[in-house]
Specification:
Radius of gyration: 15 Å
Number of helices: 4
Number of strands: 0
Structural class: mainly alpha
Helix content: 55-70%
Largest sheet: none
């Protein structure tokens, strides 16, 4: 399992905020607060395997939402629908 600092680096590489991650998790049954995730990243709280999986899931969901959201906005601006037509 990676450290809290490494999770923070991964989240930053994905370009998502703590709030983005917490919001993505809120839409699932695996909710964690932005404050708690930040405490894990700063190694103020210990992380167990369950929280690790939740945080990684949240980062990936937030990144997907951000990426798909930008793609949809780009398509609307260009007059292209989601099928590329």
């Amino acid at each position: 399992m990676i450290s809290g600092t490494e999770i923070k680096e991964f989240r930053n590489l994905r370009g998502v905020s703590l709030r983005d991650v917490a919001k993505a998790l809120k839409d699932t049954d695996k909710s964690l607060s932005a404050q708690f995730i930040g405490q894990i990243e700063n190694e103020q709280k210990s992380m167990n395997e369950d929280n690790y999986k939740k945080i990684i899931l949240g980062i990936n969901l937030a990144f997907a939402k951000k990426t798909l959201g930008n793609k949809t906005e780009d398509n609307e601006d260009s007059g292209v629908n989601e099928d590329g037509e």
